[in-house]
Amino acid sequence: MSKRFEELDWQQTPMGEVTLRRRFDLVLGTDVFEAILNDEHLMSTHFTVAEIELAHLGLAALEGRDLDVLVGGLGLGYTAQAVLEHENVRSLTVVEAIDVVVDWHRRALLPISAALTADPRLSIEIGDFFARMRDDQTPRVFDAIIVDIDHSPSHHLHPSHAPFYTEAGIQAMRRHLAPGGVFALWSDDAPDAAFTAVLAGVFEHVQAEVVAFDNALTGGRSANSVYVAH
User: Fold this and answer.
1) Where are the domains of the chain?
2) Which one of 41, 113, 151, 184 is CB 3.0 to 4.6 Å from 108, fit for a cystine?
3) 46-229 classified as CATH 2.30.250.10
4) CA-to-CA distance for 192 and 7, rounded, in angstroms?
């Protein structure tokens, strides 16, 4: 058995204090890696089903080969890893605002870091995803834009993210999509009818999928949402 608890990294960032820790979960019988922003849980390897399904559901709507994909938010890397499982992905660009998170993967502090960063199709860029989507210059276009940053369309890590979830914000993001491209978004909340309506004002086809998974902590089932628009 590994150590019961270990703080792997602590850094002060513009968004606050970011901590990466590993603890042995007696219920699961395995190590759990957790990222904490200030006093708020930011991400965990405890539940990764929906983060993985985010990639698969988004890319399932695309046909053909040689896809260029943009992921907003690197996090613990599970969405990016799931994107790279698709052989028709030619390139994956990940934009992550917190340079410390990128450093964790480059230092191989997380379980999938070494394999993820070794894939030649992956490019990680440090920057503000939302600012890039607002960029009114000639945008680089992608076949899919997949986002896992905020907790939900109405629960944001920072107030500056809120405009993205308006119709104007989604319209600006759409300029970065190639014709027939797909937008997919993870949410910790149940499907939001108001946000679904925002997407429907920009895209022809909109789905809000509920992704359910076993919760070993409660002995029941939990669920996240994935929005897919194209």
Assistant:
1) 46-229
2) 113
3) no
4) 36
